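Narrative progress, year one. The postdoctoral researcher (J.K.) led the effort to move from monomer predictions toward full complexes, under supervision of the PI. The following entry was the first complex the group processed end to end, covering 492 residues in total.
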Amino acid sequence: MTALRIFFIGGGISYRALFNWISPWHYIPTMLGGTLFVLLFFTYLGRYTDVEDESFFVVGNAVYISSISCVYGSIMAIANERFLGTLSPLLATPANRLALFAGRALPYIANGIVVSAYGFAMSWLLLDFDPPASSLGPLAIVVTAGVVSCTAFGMFLGSIGLRARDVFFIGNLAYYVLLLFTGANVPLDVLPGWMQTISSGLPLTHAITAAREVVAGAPFSSVAGLTGEELLVGTCYAVAAYALFRLFEIEARRRASLERV
Amino acid sequence: MIGVITPVVLATIAFYLFQSGGQSESLLYAALGAGLMGIWSTTLFGSGGAIQWQRWQGTLELLIAAPVPFIVVLVPLTLATAAYGLVSLVSTLVWGRVLFGIQLDLVHPILFVIAVPSAVIGLGLLGLLLASTFVLYRNANALSNLLGEPVWLITGMLVPISLLPGWVAPLSWVLAPTWGIRAIRDSALGGDPLPAILMCLGLGLLYMLIAALCLRHFERLARARATLALT
């Protein structure tokens, strides 16, 4: 029961505390304004190059833009505890570490879903994107799987941020690596073999492929495998993230380096 | 990161898309566009930061209180960040040459050498105009997050403006990056870059005049409202 409270309530409180500075003046330009123009830019680039149909770029980017919350937010959720000097009191508590760690992911998952849904809605409003109504349910499941997986990836990077000096460099790098490698804009079969191998181990890759199939009319059963692969990738990152978090916690306690920035 | 990795990733995406779309001859077009996108990103980051960092470090009030006009402090700052963005253009050209075999055969090499600094000046002074409004706006960094991609899109850096809705074209004409990329492309790929170079520099001058007026007005407002140091 306590672990559940830490998971839900603790996760919510940590989000409010770490992002106490966020206001509509920050949220709207960054999470909604910037992401919409990412989507529009690449969709128009897709129209111009005529590599695939418009839906390819709309779906790829509408799923991809969730990474602004999943990657940056999750990194800040972990690494900012150190930068703001609250890591020591946090780790001094006897709280269940798994609940404490995983609870932090929830607000970013919710935010990621909102951003992605917003991307799809704006595409329907502004572009020639009109998916069949029957695809919306499966699309929601696939997008949620992608967002969960990407958030796990962000938590993994955030755990590295407990040790690394410049965590925002890692975040920026990851954001653009996902843009190139996940097939959001460049069809995966166009990429060289070694890039495709990396793609298959990154979050969002399978979710984007599955989302495109679903929007094209495929039933969920035909993308269940891809959704499962997406969740498997996410699980691997989640396990690695938690292991790193615990490892760095133990090491930092031993070396008394928790607050070193 | 902003100067090298971002434009290189964008250029790579553009290279693959242009190649797959059977437009391999357009790779230099893409490299130049992605390079200028990088220059705009560094300009925007620097211009947004020019005021915000001073504010965070507590030096904004001192600079505004000093007898030297604040615009004299800001102009070199925004021009320097735009000039730093040149590393983006070099990166995308080298990347394209090494990995995608782009031929760097410039049609008007001398005009290219004039067009690039003209574009940098135009972009830097647009950055100055933005920075001048940030004196009053406390969430300048959030606004600069918003302005990256729209300018990429509506100034034709990778996507021709003719492909966008008709109402975008007049908007693009008042933005120096539109003329900057046109000047660079016309000098590199063929065409008459001189009108675009002149437009870029002329707009830059106009931005500087507007920025000077804005700064005077916003400085006075910020003093009156005592908001200069508020973060």
